[in-house]
């Protein structure tokens, strides 16, 4: 099946972001994409100072538009971190997924909050405004089961291992790495998660805006279960396409059968809730 990643240029005008995102979703569908993913924080600038201002409840304006375009195009739509979600006085970094009938299939709240300090380069603390999610998020398609993470979640290998154990063959991480972490770890982490679990890994970033207060790395990418980069964007607004070959995935798992050769008598990873 064809996967499309939309590397959107995000502005400060929510309505413009939503309209352009939906237009690119339609374009991807017209080119045969069956699963389409939007980047982290696609309807607002990324930054703790913006989260409260742009926050919505779910359902709300942004998710309603995503539901409608998913139904119109009859696709599976991964809504990036569509919005800072407001729920019961708390804010979450939330990714919603819609099916071809427009129904919500999954709602992933970012589990690991991005609190880092690299002296002289970047300091950022999502926990100043956001609360963490507390669950794994998967959804089924006629093609395969898909696992979800958001940005910083990709650094935690155990999360991807759980998804692999639960039968996911594709992991999608909407993310917004920056100009410090992007060149160092963006592709490395994706290839690691893919090879470790013999799954396809897709990461979808906003386009780079040098004038933004937080400058995203861009380079939305798809990696095969063999660890090969099979599609990669530059820094500009674009849509990249990949044909996900589940037969190839099965062949790789047969050739190097790490999933059946794990020593469960010695170690294990478990999903607690």
UniProtKB/TrEMBL annotation:
Its EC number is 3.5.1.3. Residues 1-246 form the CN hydrolase domain. InterPro entries: C-N_Hydrolase, C-N_Hydrolase_sf, Nit1/2_C-N_Hydrolase. The keyword Hydrolase applies. GO terms for molecular function: omega-amidase activity. This is omega-amidase. It holds the Pfam family CN_hydrolase. Belongs to the carbon-nitrogen hydrolase superfamily. NIT1/NIT2 family. One of its GO terms (cellular component) is mitochondrion. It catalyses: 2-oxoglutaramate + H2O = 2-oxoglutarate + NH4(+); 2-oxosuccinamate + H2O = oxaloacetate + NH4(+). GO terms for biological process: asparagine metabolic process; glutamine metabolic process; oxaloacetate metabolic process. It comes from Pandion haliaetus (Osprey). Keywords: Hydrolase.
